[in-house]
Amino acid sequence: MASEFQRRKVIGVFRAMDVDGDGRLTEADFKALAHRWMAVAGSVDPERLASIMTGWWPVLQAASDPDGDNAVTLDEVLHVVEGLGDMADAVSGTADAMFEAIDLNGDGLISRSEYGALIETWNGTPTATAEIFPRLDLDGDGHLTRDEFRTHWTEFWAGDDPDAPGTYVFGALVE
Ligand SMILES: [Ca+2]
Ligand SMILES: [Ca+2]
Ligand SMILES: [Ca+2]
């Protein structure tokens, strides 16, 4: 069983990804999310961004749609998350793909504004990140490196520590 804490962590991300709010993640949600990201981020290469974002759907579906109805529920996501503690390598692989998408200017670092674009995309509304970003920037140099991001991403999906900075990589938890 996923812990109550893991459930709380995932539920916020799930709601953000469920763009049409019908309680199921489908390919349409991922297309809408890609659209939103392009609108927020103003990517220099929107097609690349869209393909990374929509590329998540087949991965998620393969991992978490055992009944094959082309929709992924919260319970199905939580079922996958339960197994991720033993799959840290697989999770950090997805971190690298995500990093590529967030690093809009391709300089190999996530800046404050690139991180802000991610969170705003995720929440669908402008969101303050002034308190969260410094916690994620472990060495305090003003950027998130690939290693820093991988650490946080892996903690979010595969960890279970309320005090770890990675718990807040998508922003504050839902109440
Ligand atoms: Ca949906
Ligand atoms: Ca960058
Ligand atoms: Ca840093």
From TrEMBL:
<dbReference type="InterPro" id="IPR011992">
    <property type="entry name" value="EF-hand-dom_pair"/>
</dbReference>
<feature type="domain" description="EF-hand">
    <location>
        <begin position="131"/>
        <end position="159"/>
    </location>
</feature>
<dbReference type="InterPro" id="IPR002048">
    <property type="entry name" value="EF_hand_dom"/>
</dbReference>
<feature type="domain" description="EF-hand">
    <location>
        <begin position="5"/>
        <end position="40"/>
    </location>
</feature>
<dbReference type="GO" id="GO:0005509">
    <property type="term" value="F:calcium ion binding"/>
</dbReference>
<keyword id="KW-0479">Metal-binding</keyword>
<dbReference type="Pfam" id="PF13202">
    <property type="entry name" value="EF-hand_5"/>
</dbReference>
<protein>
    <submittedName>
        <fullName>Calcium-binding protein</fullName>
    </submittedName>
</protein>
<keyword id="KW-0677">Repeat</keyword>
<dbReference type="InterPro" id="IPR018247">
    <property type="entry name" value="EF_Hand_1_Ca_BS"/>
</dbReference>
<feature type="domain" description="EF-hand">
    <location>
        <begin position="90"/>
        <end position="125"/>
    </location>
</feature>
<dbReference type="Pfam" id="PF13499">
    <property type="entry name" value="EF-hand_7"/>
</dbReference>
